């Protein structure tokens, strides 16, 4: 009276719920660290774009004084100065957050992560604010 | 798996993915049976998983239920051997707070020793040195070989070994009816909840290992099983307030145990009786009582943050009219429904405790062997089970 | 309490290639210095932040400035493209595709640095 | 078990559903209105739904008190154990399976994928525990023992943005388990595990989003463990660099 054997059943599974690439930039449900992850990538990509933009602009120097001096006049107008402030903020955050990622990422201060992150955000914001004032005030430097 | 026996022709279908079902699948596979186990939810999602995690030394039962006490201490030694690295073996303390507790101590210690359970009197000072968070007003304590287990991972070792031995383990598979014709159960009809497909599984024998749901399944075969679901409330608070298991030294009552679980402490338990094991509820007054009784032993529990409070339904065997669950016997029984209801091919195993899952499986497997005329000794006292993570190996 | 043989007890697979992250930290640290120098030398010391043509040419005449700027260009290009690579590698491409991405980025990197150096030369000659 | 719900309010649970044979592209949700009391958890609500409204709803659970690790889920996009996540006081709550693991049925994910990586570290379940200085072992016990904090719930893997886009990443759980073995080898050679995890797809893939540690219900802090693992790996490489004749 041997009854048939039952086969083991491995249900075919559906795809995992992955946040994927779009998920990187979806701040919902994210905490401070996750926002730093997003900001680091955004500022990073922004700086890479700026690197090549900067090289293109510097290429105008070959065409001699007129082209370059006209560009400088435009670059000193308020909309461009505003862009400079954005660039400065991005640089400050990416750099300071980089210090956190570098130190913590090599196991130097693994339990200080949040403190370093908060410090990075605060310092970046402060210096960016001071920088903005000086940029718009027109007189700069030492 | 050392199965040196010829492959048996018999196929056993086990209903119920709790500790008993897992241990029985492991035992039967070692005895050469072909096994299919079905469970409507996740494994151990019934009573098994909600257990507070005490690996019983049996001391709690020594005075009033000697049979259970002896059963526990024997099983504890076997489980340490067949499930190595699965228990926190820090022993336990029965603490005496009031004079009545102290008066209870001689009978308690003598009953423990008579049951083969080592019990050592511990002075107040030594007890506080071992567990600094104990109530400073304690009078004395008794050290017993209690240990703690993970109520999901320890049984999962048996499922992992059964599965590796060829048992077919099918969670998410609900039994819709039993295949019964003129007093013979020939299999089960199931629905696979992962795709809604219904199918029949033929079996030479169906085992009802559904714990407090035993009666609901037995009714499907026209059988009757005197199982009363007796829920108890358990409270988990944040903070590991003890390493040893802390019990109250008095006749068994409510809230008389604190079991450490990782970063939590679990206080248990209370007891009442219900009919439907699916609808237990968590009465707040019971939770309050856990806080109070737990704080009597460890004052810090009074203000500890509540992590969770839940109910677990113990399957207690006894006559219908028992109103409080505690008098019912905590040992287990295996019902061969040919003898109790004249129905062939259907066996129910129920009652018992988390610690005695292996012994319950051995008893049931012996009954099954006798019913189908197979000579196969039990091997689960020696065979070491696989780690629980092996269950998830592809 | 005996614990059965665990996967951890298999023979040591030995070290693999150096982690790119360590190089990224090194280049990042270098950038903190070089970017600082660049910002001060090129922008902060100038009252309006940007130099007109003659000042630029005069300023670029100083070989130290050129050296710092080229070093800055090398490190920032490397750091930038390794960053891009890390982001691209999170897309879960195949190993073959990733090798091709790495090669492509090396080409872009060298081209960028080459262009930069050539640009300096061209600017100074044209002046 | 349900809360005998006194001053109950009704909350709408929007539950992600998936059965074998479903179109993999289309996400499907069912809505259930559930009576919710002050201490009703997501798990309580799901158990009530299964008993009263839809018995085919599948979800994993076992201990009901954040000790077994089976009921990890995403509630309104954030990972948590259903058994200790109170039903939020919003009118509508979304319940989805853990991320980054294949879905078996409704809220059940395939944990085999998780354990394939996790088991590599070979972490023991119970360790001798010297964390608690003031607790002395009882007579006859040579060392107080304790379960590892990690309850293998998979929540950290689900919360990780890197794992969210690349399945090859070993994941925080396995790396944290490996670190605990390296940090307290207890007589075992941690070398093989360190080399295993000192890899582009291992410890070095982490981008310090720290989401795993924020989401961990047991306070394991896997992110810090990964960073310590990286420190140990970097140190081992430096030693190997300057060991000249030494083989490792």
List strands and helices in order, with pairings.
The complex is a heterotetramer of chains A (142), B (394), C (127) and D (248).
Chain B: E1 11-15, H1 19-30, E2 34-38, E3 54-55, H2 59-62, H3 66-82, E4 87-88, E5 92-96, H4 99-114, E6 120-123, H5 124-130, E7 140-144, E8 147-149, H6 153-164, E9 168-170, E10 173-181, E11 184-192, E12 197-202, E13 205-208, H7 214-220, E14 227-238, E15 245-248, E16 257-261, E17 264-268, H8 284-297, E18 306-317, E19 332-336, H9 337-341, E20 346-351, H10 357-372
Parallel strand pairs in B: 1-2, 1-13, 2-9, 5-15, 13-20
Antiparallel strand pairs in B: 3-8, 4-8, 5-7, 6-7, 10-11, 11-12, 14-17, 14-18, 15-16, 16-17, 19-20
Helix pairs in contact in B: 1-6, 1-10
Chain C: H1 20-44, H2 53-60, H3 63-89, H4 95-126
Helix pairs in contact in C: 1-3, 3-4
Chain D: E1 9-17, E2 28-36, H1 42-52, E3 72-75, E4 78-81, E5 92-97, E6 103-105, E7 108-109, H2 111-118, E8 126-128, E9 145-147, H3 155-159, H4 172-183, H5 191-197, H6 211-215, H7 222-242
Parallel strand pairs in D: 1-5
Antiparallel strand pairs in D: 1-2, 3-4, 3-5, 6-7, 8-9
Helix pairs in contact in D: 2-4, 4-5, 4-7
Summarize the structure in words:
The complex is a heterotetramer of chains A (142), B (394), C (127) and D (248). Chain B has 394 residues and is an alpha+beta fold. Chain B has ten helices and 20 strands. In chain C, helix 1 crosses helix 3 and helix 3 runs antiparallel to helix 4. Chain D has 248 residues and is of the alpha+beta class. Chain D folds into two domains: 96 residues, Beta-grasp domain (Ubiquitin-like (UB roll)), CATH 3.10.20; 132 residues, Alpha-helical ferredoxin (Fumarate Reductase Iron-sulfur Protein, Chain B, domain 2), CATH 1.10.1060. Chain D starts with 8 loop residues before the first strand and ends in a 6-residue tail after the last helix. The chains are: A mainly alpha (142), B alpha+beta (394), C mainly alpha (127), D alpha+beta (248). The interface between B and D is large, with 64 and 59 residues.
Helix proportion range of chain B: 25-40%
Question: Could you say what the CATH topology of the largest domain in chain D is called?
Answer: Fumarate Reductase Iron-sulfur Protein, Chain B, domain 2
Write down the domain tally of chain B: 2
**Tally of helical runs of chain B:** 10
Structural class of chain D: alpha+beta
- Write down the overall geometry of chain B: elongated
What is the CATH topology assignment of the largest domain in chain B?
A: FAD/NAD(P)-binding domain
* CATH architectural category of the largest domain in chain B: 3-Layer(bba) Sandwich
């Amino acid at each position: 009276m041997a009854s048939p054997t039952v086969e083991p059943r491995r249900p075919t599974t559906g795809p995992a719920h992955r946040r994927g690439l779009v998920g990187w930039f979806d701040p919902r449900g994210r905490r401070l660290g996750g926002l730093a992850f997003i900001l680091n990538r955004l500022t990073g990509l922004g700086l890479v774009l700026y690197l090549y933009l900067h090289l293109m602009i510097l290429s105008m120097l070959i065409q001699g004084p007129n082209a370059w001096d006209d560009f400088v006049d435009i670059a000193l107008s308020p909309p461009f100065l505003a862009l400079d402030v954005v660039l400065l903020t991005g640089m400050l955050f990416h750099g300071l957050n980089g210090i956190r990622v570098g130190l913590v990422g090599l196991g130097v201060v693994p339990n200080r992560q949040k403190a370093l992150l908060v410090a990075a955000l605060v310092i970046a914001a402060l210096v960016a604010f001071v920088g903005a004032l000086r940029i718009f005030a027109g007189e700069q430097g030492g | 798996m050392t199965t040196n026996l010829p492959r048996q022709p018999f196929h056993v279908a086990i209903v119920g993915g709790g500790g008993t079902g897992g241990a029985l699948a492991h035992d039967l596979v070692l005895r050469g049976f072909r096994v299919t186990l079905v469970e409507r939810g996740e494994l151990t999602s019934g009573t098994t998983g909600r257990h507070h995690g005490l690996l019983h030394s049996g001391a709690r039962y020594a005075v009033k239920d000697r049979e259970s006490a002896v059963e526990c201490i024997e099983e504890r030694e076997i489980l340490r051997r067949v499930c190595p690295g699965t228990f926190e073996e820090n022993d336990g303390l029965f603490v005496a707070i009031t004079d009545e507790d102290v008066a209870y101590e001689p009978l308690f210690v003598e009953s423990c020793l008579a049951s083969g359970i080592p019990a050592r009197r511990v002075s107040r000072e030594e007890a506080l040195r071992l567990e600094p968070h104990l109530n400073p007003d304690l009078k004395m304590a008794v050290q017993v070989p209690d240990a703690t287990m993970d109520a999901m991972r320890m049984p999962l070792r048996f499922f992992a070994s059964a599965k590796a031995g060829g048992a077919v383990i099918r969670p998410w598979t609900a039994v819709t009816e039993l295949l019964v014709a003129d007093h013979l159960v020939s299999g089960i009809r199931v629905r696979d909840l992962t795709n809604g497909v219904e199918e029949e599984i033929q079996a030479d024998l169906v085992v009802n290992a559904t714990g407090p749901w035993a009666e609901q399944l037995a009714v499907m075969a026209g059988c009757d099983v005197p199982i009363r679901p007796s829920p108890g409330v358990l409270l988990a608070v944040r903070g590991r307030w003890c390493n040893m298991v802390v019990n109250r030294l008095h006749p068994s009552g409510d809230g008389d145990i604190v079991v450490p679980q990782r970063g939590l402490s679990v206080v248990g338990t209370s007891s009442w009786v219900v009919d439907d094991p699916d609808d237990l509820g968590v009465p707040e007054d019971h939770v309050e009582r856990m806080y109070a009784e737990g704080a009597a032993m460890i004052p810090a529990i009074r203000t500890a943050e509540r992590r969770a409070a839940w109910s677990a339904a113990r399957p207690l065997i006894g006559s219908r009219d028992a109103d409080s669950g505690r008098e019912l016997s905590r040992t287990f029984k295996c019902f061969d429904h040919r003898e109790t209801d004249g129905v062939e091919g259907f066996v129910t195993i129920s009652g018992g405790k988390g610690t005695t899952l292996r012994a319950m499986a051995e008893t049931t497997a012996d009954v099954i062997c006798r019913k189908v005329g197979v000579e196969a000794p039990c091997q689960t006292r020696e065979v070491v089970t696989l780690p629980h993570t092996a269950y998830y190996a592809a | 309490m005996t614990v059965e043989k665990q996967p951890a007890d298999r023979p040591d697979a030995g070290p693999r290639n150096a982690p790119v992250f360590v190089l990224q930290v090194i280049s990042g640290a270098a950038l903190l210095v070089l970017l600082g120098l660049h910002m001060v030398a090129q922008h902060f010391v100038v009252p309006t932040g940007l130099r007109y043509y003659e000042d630029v040419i005069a300023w670029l005449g100083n070989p130290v400035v050129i050296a710092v700027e080229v070093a800055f260009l090398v490190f920032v290009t490397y750091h930038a493209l390794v960053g891009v690579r890390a982001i691209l590698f999170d897309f879960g491409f195949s190993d073959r595709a990733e090798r091709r991405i790495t090669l492509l980025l090396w080409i872009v990197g060298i081209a960028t640095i080459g262009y930069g150096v050539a640009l300096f030369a061209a600017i100074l000659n044209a002046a | 078990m349900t809360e005998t719900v006194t001053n109950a309010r009704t909350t709408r649970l929007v539950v992600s559903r998936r059965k074998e044979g479903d179109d993999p592209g289309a996400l499907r949700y069912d809505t259930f209105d559930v009576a919710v009391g002050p201490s009703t958890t997501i798990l309580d609500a799901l158990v009530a739904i299964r008993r009263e409204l839809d018995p085919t709803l599948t979800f994993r659970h076992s201990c009901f008190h954040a000790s077994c690790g089976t009921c990890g889920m995403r509630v309104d996009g954030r990972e948590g154990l259903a058994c200790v996540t109170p039903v939020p006081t919003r009118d509508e709550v979304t319940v989805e399976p853990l991320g980054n693991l294949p879905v078996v049925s409704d809220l059940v994910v395939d944990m085999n994928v998780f354990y394939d990586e996790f088991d590599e570290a070979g972490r023991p379940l119970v360790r001798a525990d010297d964390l608690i200085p003031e607790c002395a072992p009882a007579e006859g016990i040579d060392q107080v023992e304790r379960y590892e904090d990690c309850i293998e719930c998979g929540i950290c893997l689900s919360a990780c943005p890197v794992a969210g886009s690349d399945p090859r990443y070993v994941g925080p759980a396995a790396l944290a388990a490996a670190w605990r073995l390296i940090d307290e080898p207890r007589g075992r050679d941690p070398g093989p595990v360190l080399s295993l995890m000192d890899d582009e797809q291992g410890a070095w893939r982490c981008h310090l989003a720290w989401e795993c540690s924020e989401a961990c219900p047991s306070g394991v802090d896997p992110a810090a463990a990964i960073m310590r693992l990286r420190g140990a790996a970097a140190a081992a490489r430096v030693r190997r660099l300057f060991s000249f004749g030494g083989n490792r």
